[in-house]
């Protein structure tokens, strides 16, 4: 085979690289007795807009939210319809998200309530998520929703409100049903219509006699919708610093990954002369990527930003690791052909013994308190991702022996090498998480049934998000480009690291849970896998629905359609995570995992950083807030 052909196929597959990573339960249960009280019914008016031909408009539909005590002992979320399958997957995902976020904010488990949403006619879309959340909160807390106030905006895992479109038309819909105040996501003052005209939303609201208010999170939305504030810890601006022991552990992780990086760079340097000429340019790109992130890591470490430095050095090590092993692959192909290529690839695939060594460390970790539980849960979350990648890799490997055509074999092995690098990296990250977070004081462990109920709630919520991604993102792309949904999903799995984290962790945790015998570790495994999947799947929805992320040919994010809104979301997410940590500290405890996420995110969230760094910062904020709220709830502090 000509080397130029090798180069073309390499360019199609090899540059699919994840450079930034750092981002039924088998427990016995019994129905929990519930104190009976009256059914709580709240009425709200979600807004939507429509397009028929060249005509666009806005409308509103009456939504009845019903919350009643449940003695089922498990989660119950329902959607009443006036037509068969009238509630779309996006609407259902928003309803589940609203129920979970409300439970995380109040600390009341979803199993305590039976929650339902009742809307006539056909309805879909996530833009009512903020309104659904505030309305469920009002019902749970016994507050009424003001009759002439409504809102539009998605709901994110930490309670922040995400941007939506069609507000210009939605304002008219609000006017038609008698509203006088409309809440919209913070940062949206203007909107571009389909005809290209840019309109001022405040001016439009004034013309219609409406009061327009921007809200950054569900706390602000709730105050406007009910006239009553939610309880909040006052942020006095104090610095939230890592304990000395945690700093030492982060430094150790940084040094270990730095050694890995140096080793892989040396390997790339030694093999550079022997790789085929057709792929030298692509190997040079990996070399430059590794050095770029190494430079960022060095700068952050010198400035004392340890978590940021560690994230960057891991990204650098991944690039160099991929470069080194791809070098070996292409040299083997050049010298020994397809048999040599397969032999070299097989040496790097993670073995069962390698995987089990990390699982043994996880299952033998001593879980003495809630801080330990959250740490082990997060580590299990990463392990479930790595296990999912390994299962995905196994499916790819199964096809290798049946392929003799080098034109088909080479791209498959390059893709499988990417997966092998990713899996090995994440397995080692599970070890980092345990080293960073175990052994700190924390509140005592809750009863097993409480952990099981929250694990199941997070599973249902992540499943709803993944269904939304299938129906609202993958299927439309498949129809537009005349491809199968499985093909589009495969491309998205290869090009979007957050979708990888969400989808693979959800697919792997059932298998993982069956191999964990201890009840507390099994609860941690399911809680970690599902919480990871929920947070990252919500980020995928935000990327493609709210922010409109733009990517280049390699799948790297190069911009967002709504940059100002990303800035608002990051500021609000930072504020939410600080509040969660401060609330725990007010009770006498410091949640280590959320604090680590805060320190990792806050440096990378500024405007000087690239889109990839800022998106990863958002994922850190959301995952930290979710684990932080679980820390409060399971520790009895909610």
Overview of the structural elements:
It is built from 19 helices and 15 strands. It is of the alpha/beta class and 638 residues long. Among the domains are: 1-23 and 242-348, no CATH class; 40-69 and 75-226, Ribosomal Protein S5, domain 2, CATH 3.30.230.10; 552-638. The strands form six sheets. A four-stranded mixed sheet has the order 1-4-6-5, with helices on one face. α2 (89-106) links the parallel β5 (76-80) and β6. α1 (3-13) crosses α12 (406-437) and α13 runs parallel beside α16. The protein is globular, with a radius of gyration of 25 Å.
Widest β-sheet, arrangement of strands: 1-4-6-5
Average pLDDT metric: 87
Largest sheet: number of strands, sense, barrel closure? 4 strands, mixed
Strand content: 5-15%
Q: Which residues sit in consecutive blocks of at least 5 with pLDDT less than 50?
A: 1-36
State the helical fraction.
55-70%
- Quote the distance from N terminus to C terminus: 65 Å
Assigned CATH architecture of the domain at 40-69 and 75-226? 2-Layer Sandwich
Short description:
The chain is an alpha/beta fold and 638 residues long.
List the helices and strands and how they pair.
Blueprint lengths: L2 H11 L26 E5 L2 E6 L2 E6 L2 E7 L6 E5 L8 H18 L6 E7 L9 H13 L7 E3 L2 E2 L5 E2 L4 H10 L4 E5 L4 E3 L5 E3 H7 L3 E5 L2 H9 L17 H28 L8 H23 L3 H43 L3 H13 L5 H29 L7 H32 L10 H34 L3 H11 L1 H18 L4 H29 L1 E3 L5 E4 L2 H24 L5 H13 L6 H24 L4
Parallel strand pairs: 5-6, 7-10, 10-13
Antiparallel strand pairs: 1-4, 2-3, 4-6, 8-9, 11-12, 14-15
Helix pairs in contact: 1-12, 2-3, 2-13, 3-6, 7-9, 7-12, 8-9, 9-12, 9-18, 10-11, 10-12, 11-12, 11-15, 11-16, 11-19, 13-14, 13-16, 14-15, 15-16, 16-19, 17-18, 17-19, 18-19
């Amino acid at each position: 085979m000509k080397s130029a052909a090798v180069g073309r196929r390499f360019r199609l597959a090899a540059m699919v690289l994840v450079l930034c990573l750092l981002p039924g339960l088998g427990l016995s249960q019994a129905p929990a007795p519930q104190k009976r009280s009256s059914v709580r019914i709240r009425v709200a008016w979600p807004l939507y807009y429509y397009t028929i031909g060249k005509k666009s408009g806005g409308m509103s539909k009456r939504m009845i939210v019903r919350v009643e005590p449940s003695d089922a002992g498990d989660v119950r979320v329902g959607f009443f319809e006036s037509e068969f399958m009238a509630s779309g997957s996006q609407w259902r995902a928003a309803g589940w998200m609203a129920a979970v976020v409300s439970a995380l904010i109040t600390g009341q488990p979803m199993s305590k309530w039976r929650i339902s949403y009742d809307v006539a006619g056909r309805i879909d879309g996530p833009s009512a998520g903020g309104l659904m959340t505030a309305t469920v909160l009002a019902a749970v807390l016994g507050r009424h929703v003001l009759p002439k106030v409504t809102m539009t905006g998605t709901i994110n895992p930490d309670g922040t409100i995400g941007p939506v479109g069609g507000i210009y038309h939605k304002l008219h819909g609000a006017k038609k049903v008698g509203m006088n105040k409309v809440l919209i996501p913070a940062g949206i003052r203007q909107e571009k219509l389909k005809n290209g005209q840019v309109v001022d939303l405040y001016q439009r609201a004034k013309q219609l006699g409406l009061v327009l208010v921007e809200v950054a999170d569900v706390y602000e939305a709730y105050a406007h919708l009910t006239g009553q504030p939610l309880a909040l810890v006052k942020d006095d601006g104090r610095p939230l610093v890592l304990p000395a022991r945690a700093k030492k552990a982060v430094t150790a992780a940084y040094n270990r990954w730095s050694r890995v990086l140096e080793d892989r760079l040396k390997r790339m340097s030694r093999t550079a002369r022997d790789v085929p000429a057709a792929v030298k340019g692509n190997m040079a790109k990996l070399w430059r990527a590794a050095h770029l992130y190494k430079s960022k890591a060095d700068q952050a470490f010198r400035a004392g930003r340890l978590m940021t430095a560690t994230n960057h050095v891991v990204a650098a090590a991944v690039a160099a690791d991929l470069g080194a092993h791809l070098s070996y692959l292409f040299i083997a192909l050049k010298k020994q052909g397809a048999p040599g290529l397969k032999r070299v690839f097989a040496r790097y695939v993670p073995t069962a013994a390698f995987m089990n060594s990390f699982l043994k460390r996880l299952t033998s970790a001593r879980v003495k308190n809630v801080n330990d539980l959250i740490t082990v849960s997060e580590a299990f979350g990463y392990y479930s991702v790595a296990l999912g990648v390994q299962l995905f890799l196994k499916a790819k490997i199964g096809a290798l022996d049946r392929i003799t055509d080098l034109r088909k074999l080479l791209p498959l092995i390059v893709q499988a090498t990417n997966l092998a690098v990713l899996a090995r990296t994440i397995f080692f990250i599970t070890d980092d998480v345990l080293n960073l977070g175990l052994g700190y004081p924390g509140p005592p462990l809750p009863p097993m049934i409480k952990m099981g109920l929250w694990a199941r709630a997070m599973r249902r919520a992540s499943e709803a998000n993944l269904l939304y991604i299938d129906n609202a993102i993958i299927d439309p792309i498949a129809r537009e480009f005349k491809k199968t949904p499985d093909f589009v999903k495969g491309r998205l799995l290869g090009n979007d690291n957050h979708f990888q984290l969400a989808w693979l962790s959800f697919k792997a945790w059932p298998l993982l849970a069956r191999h964990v015998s201890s009840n507390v570790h099994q609860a941690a495994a399911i809680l970690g896998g599902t919480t990871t999947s929920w947070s990252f799947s919500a980020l995928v929805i935000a990327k493609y629905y709210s922010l409109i992320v733009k990517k280049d040919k390699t799948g790297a994010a190069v911009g967002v359609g709504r940059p100002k809104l990303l800035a608002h979301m990051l500021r609000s997410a930072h504020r939410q995570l600080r509040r969660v940590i401060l609330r725990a500290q007010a009770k006498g405890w410091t949640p280590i995992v959320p604090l680590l996420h805060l320190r990792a995110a806050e440096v990378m969230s500024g405007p000087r950083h690239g889109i990839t760094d800022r998106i990863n910062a958002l994922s850190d904020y959301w995952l930290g807030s979710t684990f932080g709220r679980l820390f409060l709830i399971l520790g009895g502090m909610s």
